[in-house]
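Late entry, written up from scratch paper. The run itself happened at the end of the previous shift, but nothing got recorded in the book at the time, so transcribing now.
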Amino acid sequence: MSYLALYRKYRPSDFDSVYGQEEVVTVIKNAILNNKISHAYLFSGPRGTGKTTIAKIIAKLVNCEHLENGKPCGKCYNCLNFSNSNDIVEIDAASNNGVDEIREIRDKINLVPSNAKFKVYIVDEVHMLTNQAFNALLKTLEEPPSHVIFILATTEPHKIPLTIASRCQKFRFSKIDDNKVVDRLKEISKLENISCDDDAYYEIARLSDGCMRDAINLLDQLVAYSDSHITLEDIYKVNGAVSYNDINELLNYIYSNDKTKIIEFVDNFDKSGKEINKFIEELIIYIKDIILYKNAGFLSNIKVKNENIKVISDAFSDKILYMLVDMLNSTQNSVKTSSHGSILFMTSILNFAEKINAQEHFSDPIKQENSVVNKNEITSNGFNIANKIISREIILDEKVVDSSNISVLKIDLDGRINNTLAGASKDILKMFKSKWNLISDYLFDEKYSSVCGLLKDSNVVVSSSEYIIISNKLSSVASRINYNSEIIEELLEKIFDSKVKVVAVSEEEWSKIKSEYINNIKNGKKYVVLELNEKVENEKEKTPVDDLIDLVGENVIEYK
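Output as recorded:
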């Protein structure tokens, strides 16, 4: 006897064996038990999620002569001869999509079933039918004989004419949850005496992307490759995917800006014959998992992956992760149309690694001997130094150092807001808004990159010839913009060729300011430009603390 593929061998024969489509199963099962069967169903959803399987179960249930608690008895004539029944008609619309095939169905549906109660037509990939075929099906679908049931299945429901869809009960099949895929794989493994690591099960489920058929097929393929015990490494070799250890290595090379290792990595990857586009996709997903862990404490079910994520999350700041995703997404789009994808990917990674400076952009303490920064004192998103210097202390190697000597520019926030409103100009505001996206050009500039992220997510709301008001959702970001106003004003002068003074407020604060401004104007109040007294406070001789800030950057020092 020839070998039967596992996905065919373990295809569900009743609703209790269906995984991941509980809502669909519940509705249809109750309809059958209460004798409220519709004459037409439309199943839509991704491949391998159970559309055709549930269609066959429906056909078996409606024709079973002795249902037992919503299950086919498996003993009656219709159950025993289900696979050879002339009353269950499966049609592949991809190869039988013409009007003649549909007319043939229309001519035959009036014939009563030979042995079963219902004649069931299962039309797979129904979206492949031509317009003429759909028109031929329309009238039949609207008023079929009482002994006929149509079940239409498709992966592209948007291609189904509304006139057809509106005559069916519609069910949307979702991707199957990874945990449910794993449960099914373990069940099959137990029946087939397959030995497999837990990490491998979850990796199979992830690679299948919610498709149960793909997951079982991959398990079947892995059994043929390693009949003793299936591991993560087996999956990477068979599927062509990249291991988490490999991804971890590349991220470490990027962190340390090791150009030689990056080139060797990409060169070896290219020689292996694996798809660079697929690797970029894996890398983006992996970085997404790092972001989830850093911000939500979420980890996957794969132990090896979790160990790597914990290490990398300590090294990379959120800002760098976001920038890396943007770069990879842009590179992936370019790779798709390039005949030299590996070279394009390599140069993008090298450029990224060179542009970022570990001492300025990473939240991990600097990997140098005698580092005085205490890693446990680093906050998840860096210290917000813009909160001013009211009785602050810097924690350095468990010793307390007074920070009163740090120079801080004291800006008159209310005065700058007043002066911006006094000289507000729509034309100047329009100019700033039209060129605001040019800030992104300085994201990798060593001098301005630290403030570009603050400005990129902010908006200019009012502008005059000498002042601008910037708004951000978060008051903490607005405070950081105010603290870094000098370097920001220098950057804006480069971009807009116009010297202006900056003041930032949160969106909530701006809403109040705007409302007050409108009321004042209505009541005849005039805004006049004030002379501001802004100066640098506590400006003293440079201290060891200042040297430390220059060395490691403000984001890795926490003030208390």
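Residues 358-407 have pLDDT under 50 and may be disordered.
(Scratch paper discarded after transcription.)
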